[in-house]
Amino acid sequence: MGLPTSIARGMCLGICIAKGLTMPRLVALTAILLLGSGCANETESDPVVPPSSVVDLTPEQHLVRASMALRGTRPSLEELDRVAESSDALTEIVDEYLASDAFGRTMRRLHSESLMLEPDWLYYPAGFPNVGALADYDVATVNQSVMQAPLRLIESVVMEDRAYTEIVTADHTLADPISSVVWGLAYDPSGPEWQATRYEDGRGNAGILTDSWMYVRYQSTASNANRQRANAISRSLLCYDFLSRDVELDTSVDVADPNAVQAAVVANSACASCHQALDPLASFFKDMLPLFVPQDAPGYPLDPPVFIPGVFEIGLGVEMRQSSYFGLAGESLEDLGQLIADDPRFSLCAAQRFYSYFNQVPLSEVPFEAAAALQQGFIDSGFNAKALTKAVVMSHDFSASHAETAEEAEGLNGFRRARPDEAASMIDDLTGFRWETDLGPYTEGMIGVIDLPRDSMLGYRVVGGGTDSMFVTVDTFTDNAGTSLFVRSFAEQAAGYVVDSDLSVAGDARKLLGRVDAQTSDEATLRSQIADLHARVFGTVVSVDSPEVDATFDLYQAARVQSGDAARAWKTVLTALFSDFRAGNY
Predict the structure, then answer these.
(1) 474 contacts 362 by C-beta, under 8 angstroms
(2) What is the number of structural domains in the chain?
(3) Where would you tag: which of 306, 408, 515, 523 has the fewest CB atoms within 10 A of its CB?
(4) Within a domain: 564
(5) Of all helices (H) and strands (E), which one includes residue 402?
């Protein structure tokens, strides 16, 4: 029995990639497999699929999951009502989410994790000083602008519905008032904060492939000859990590002798199996400065610059191979961008990464059939990343709640955990509270305001389960001492803030406590308020006499009796709700 065409193509391509074949051989073998084995034909009859015991979320629960995944916020009460009235509204609301600025932030976060572009901003490979023309900014702000530039370009491609391939082919880069000064890029102060500009130093413009931060983040010694950079590009954009290959090492090679290594990667079969593809790919970056320590920058624009024609071959005397992309010829970074965009592995990798991110499963565990189907839809949409995202969040895998049999329950991810960034967005939306600290008075302006949940240097992003793009590169989606402390501390801070704020302003201006004040004692009103809180914080509509409201009402009453203070009682209630498993998961 045959396979659907999209799956068969992906399987055949996967076989080629696993064998480490160069692109011409990959294309040829794929064609042989597709045509010769019947992979290219649709199935003559559908296979008999046994009934599944996997239960989907309700439309309202699916809405909550989609809202948190796409925006990092809970749906509004009005959106919950729309879905309750008609499940068809879910598709319309998802489209609205995809057009929101909050989704743009999500795209930056997704690609920051895949490209690992946001390491701690004070230390190497980051650590750009606030000197010269940037003396009025603090160090954190300077470095965050530099690291954000390639991510902002990706965000603009996605949000403007341009072909996703433009992240490696765009004829421009994006810069703000800070990154433009660092790299010496043209910038119009009267224009938008982040605006299109171009590198005019001869490197060309190929989206993120020509962004200087990519080459400061991924540096190279002379002897490494850009191999780390080549593998970073391959791993991030093609989901092909040269380091994952099984290689039998030849221990007779003197790895301390650069000449012996250089000869071995060509002549030694054990070495050449990887290096015949890796080294020509690395040669695309032969004009990029190998090592740069930002902390040593005397001023801006950087001197020396990141792009120095001939730096490896002429300046360092490193013999580089002829540049090529898995056997396909190319000379410039613009050539490389087009070769990547044309590679089927690029669209397949995007499908895998989007599935992995939104379903919170390791990249290696993304079901191949699901990735292949997403890839085909992605291609058919003209490489529209919003369409790819929508396909993921509207899929059965995303909406699965639980399974009624142990066999299908094994490996099923029935809930998603809020990343620190998502938790920060959710709390900000619900309460208006931002967990920040201003270190300016204590550092003589060197460090300013730190967004604690989103910062890995001085904040709690790693403790809360996030990454630092250097030492912690995979999110944590299980409870541990660190994540529990993060959630509880965040909950207490946010609860205290919103109660004090809400009880000091008129009802229309309040965030959560719209029905009560410090003197409210009527049980019906209190229960109505608690039901509203369940809907906003958990995305769950409950009746005023439900067991959930009963339990929360009892907590409120006990806290008020003990403290004699209604505000203190509401802080206790909200701390409990924000700390609840249902608030931190979706």
Answers:
(1) yes
(2) 1
(3) 523
(4) yes
(5) strand 400-403
**What would the DSSP string read from start to end of 74-85?**
PPPHHHHHHHHH
State which residues form the domain around 491: 420-584
DSSP for 171-234, please give it.
Answer: S-EEE-TTHHHHHT----TTS-SSEEE---SSS---GGGG-HHHHHHS---TTTTTHHHHHHHH
Q: What is the DSSP string of 336-386?
A: HHHHHHH-HHHHHHHHHHHHHHHHT--GGGS-HHHHHHHHHHHHHTTS-HH
- pLDDT tens digits, 501-544: 999 999 899 999 999 999 999 999 999 999 999 999 999 999 99
The DSSP symbol for 312 reads: I
The helix or strand, by DSSP H or E, that contains position 55, with its residue range, turns out to be strand 54-56
Q: Which of 214, 203, 227, 201 is nearest to 318 (CA)?
A: 227
As a dihedral over the C-alpha atoms of residue 441, residue 444, residue 445, residue 446, rounded to 10 degrees, the angle is -130
pTM greater than 0.70 (yes/no): yes
Residues 74-108: b if buried by 16+ CB within 10 A, e if exposed: bbeeebbebbeeeeebbeebbeebbeeeebbbbbb
In angstroms, the Cα distances linking 144 to 126, 140, 256, 294 are 9, 6, 37, 13
Using only C-alpha atoms, what is the Rg of the chain? 27
557: CB partners within 8 A, 6+ apart: 569
| Residue 88 belongs to some domain of the structure | no
Q: Average pLDDT in the 418-437 region?
A: 98
3-state secondary structure of 467: coil
**Is residue 485 in a domain?**
yes
* 446 domain residue, yes or no: yes
